[in-house]
Amino acid sequence: MPDVESKAGAQEPRSNAWQSAVTVVQEVELPFVPPSAHAMTITVEFPPGDPGTPPHRHPGPAFGYVLDGEMVFELEGQPARVVRAGEAFWEPGGDVIHYQDGNNRDDIPVRFTVTMLCDPAKPMLTLVDEEELVQRANRRAPRGH
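Structure (tokenized):
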């Protein structure tokens, strides 16, 4: 290992890249944060054409970013939309049903990351049963065919 020389008193010039290195991808006001919340960041990857996680909910807000591919994203009360690589999404958590997070493409995988503010006493994801989906059908935005 080569010797490293210290130049006491002399400071190397620093880059100014940090001044323009940050791009805000999304900014939201949190509806709530669960008491004693902890943050969990996960990466999810679905193969081509995969429908994703069945309808579910999270106990707290979730913030995501699509790394590769295209995701179909649908929350209760909002029409389904496509979120592409380089785009962000979020959901408030709590009682809101997350209907879709599947792969919009049948030729490439989709990969996204999600940071959730979780209640440590509850599972980070709870599937919604068919009976509740029927009871809340009027809250789901109309879907095109």
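The chain is about 5% helix and 30% strand. The beta strands are 38-46, 56-57, 62-68, 70-75, 81-84, 88-91, 98-100, 110-118, 126-127.
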